[in-house]
User: Fold these one by one.
Assistant:
Number 1:
Amino acid sequence: MDILTSFDDFQSAALSAIGRAGSPEQLEAVRIEFLGQKNGRIRDLQKLVGQATGDQKPLVGKRFNEVRTAVTAELEARQQQLEASKSSSPVSDFDVTLPGDRPVFGRLHPISRTITEFRELMGRFGFTVVEGPELEDERHNFEALNIPEDHPARDPLDNFYVACASATLGGPVLLRSQTSTVQIRTMETTPPPVRIVSLGRVYRPDTIDATHSCMFHQMEGLMVDEHVTMAQLKTVLSLFARSFLGPDVEIRFRPSFFPFTEPSVEVDVKWGDHWMEIGGAGMVDPNVFKAVGYDPEKVSGFAFGLGIERFCMKHYGVDDIRRFYENDVRFLAQF
Ligand code: PHE
């Protein structure tokens, strides 16, 4: 029968077109060509159903439904096949215009992490981060800090003097032995009020052991205003230590001496059952204010210098400062 032959032709043409479709887009074009509601070839078959005479009608109608169901099923099966091969094919998935995924190599050194955290913490307390040079002159490392010529801290054997002439620094040049240099540099260029921290390397020819290294890091802090008090200094340092080491950390202040602060204290935190010194602090000495052109009658201030390695050791439970600089990946990979 002609009508049924047309149905067979339609089915085999549709199935082979579906088999040839190599992409979801091509498959969609095949679907529209054969099953499209408006102009699909299925419309011709529908017309044939309409032309069928009385007794042919049930058979033709049944065949029409069979053909349409078969083609639709085949379309769906092929569609799933194409989707599956698309997502598993590395080539079709690979967009050469996208930036590559960078493999993770290495990680931040514990000291760098600590420095970043210190900056953030002090930033929240309202302190601005400033930088200073590691190569210094005697004015910034000693003189303006009220450290006289005959002070033992200026002994050439206790400092790393550098044999070089500097266009910007006057007189002998040394690797800074403390970040207090940045206090001077800041006050020289900024009128009060001042609230800064500066974090960086310092150098001392110390004998190296579990708690001493000839290069280490300090965080210097300086706050100057009309009425700055020792109570504020203690509050800032206590808050800082608790924020970094935990709310239960014990901190204590011992009377001490520094040429650039009066009164001066040494700051300790409790490590296990003993106290560990983490830095020095005090009220800025009037002579320091005079050296930078501030009026000690009008302003007061506090300063502190904390050893970053010491904090880092306490924080991560590292018992020997040398671990930080041996570059043993088994140690570094733990952070
Ligand atoms: N500069 C001192 C040191 O290196 C620490 C310190 C800084 C003390 C600021 C008082 C005020 O030991």
Number 2:
Amino acid sequence: MPPRSFLFLFICLGVCFGEDFPILTPPPSKAPRIHGALVYGSRPGKPFLYRIPCTGERPLTFRVSGLPPSLTLDPVNGILSGKAPDQPRSVVLRLEARNRHGKSERRLELRIGDTISLTPPMGWNHWYTHYHGVSDQLFRQAADAMVASGMADFGYSYVSIDDCWMSKPGSPDPSLNGPARDANGAIAPNGRFPDMKGLTAYIHAKGLKAGIYSSPGPLTCAKYTGSYQHEAEDARVFAEWGFDLLKYDWCSYGTIDRTPTVAARRKPYDLMGELLKRQDRDIHLNLCQYGMSDVWKWAPESGGQSWRTTGDLGLEKDTRLPGFYSIAFKNAVLSEYAGPGKWNDPDYILIGVIGNARDIKSPPKRTALTAGEQYSYMSMWSLMASPLFFSGDMGHLDPFTLNILCNSEVIDVNQDALGKQARVVRRTEDEFVLAKPLAGGLVAVGLFNLSEQPRKVSASWADLHLTGRKRVRDVWRQKDIGTGDSEVGFTIERHGVRMVRLAR
Ligand code: GLA
């Protein structure tokens, strides 16, 4: 037990593990364990698809009680599908998974109403690994890998296509240079995507969701066909194809209207937001316009569920610290704008084997980030209630990368039902401290060492607006580590983090 009035543990990650890339996440047990958010939003009467995230040795048998008659369960794969109930209401489900090692239960509240994405979306996006080198095949493989790697068992669900799936006017490559649209104005995929409906059906059959990308401008950022003046057709086609998320990227829209007012900046998003709401499916709208005109202040009214707050993370210059830190610092101060169904998006998680946004032709390589930096990255994204989209290579997922992406307690912080983004408790040259209130009166705290040396980083109860004795749990190690009644602090390696959950 720690000394009387405070908890102060001196643990240096580097020394403890004596390795460069220590795996902190305990391996999942063979017995079932259901993960995932405790709330899920769907609009009344819309198609419904939810894969119960669950670790444990397969085969598993799932049961769900409280299921409305419009939904059915695939008991082998744990996939709920059908239509959401017709009327707005709350439906409490009790999920159960069993195998020969035991059973797991979890409550899931379906909130049938106008708000979708009650917790931040989780998935994979192709951009930072494959850039323009995408095809139907690649996304099928990514969906396979999301299940085979276990990522789906922790709640990752969107398999998202970014730019470059449409035609590219003027391209010398015949597979890209087909017609932009058909006779009815419907956007045409390029020759590398022969069957969009077949692709989303493939993804949906695994209980996963499909994401797509367009621009309100005539051309996307990579100069492929955009939605300008075809917004209604495109919204309809994306829904008919079966997509569940649209990333709508400003790109060439500046050639149409450069007026720097909120009204002008909102216009294309208001339009698409409205059109998506009219479709017969729930489609998460991600606004990608790099934070212009304080997008966080109006994106929810435009119909957006998430919005990029900054420029591209992959192009962010490294300072003394890698670029993701400066993106995080900009995003972290916007906590008041986040909540259920409305999330600040600081861009993707660039770890594992990943391409170089400044040189997209160079082959993907292992990230240069240290272990401490990768733990810090995932901790910040979780505490900031950011969408968790991995954008590394799904074909090269190593145990260390999966340990970063798939820690159920870290993800629980991100997916917490209260939907609060952490507030910045402290930011100095050397320290960054975030605190995220969680449902049930808990709080998650991230203590980040920004300096070049091991350093003691702590937060007092006054900093955290707490009183009384608290239990302290190390979230990465999934271990209770003591109690404290005045502060929590650790000696942390260069660019490393300790992330804890404090409870009564
Ligand atoms: C912009 C976006 C990126 C990516 C590319 C695609 O740069 O910010 O996230 O979608 O376009 O061209």
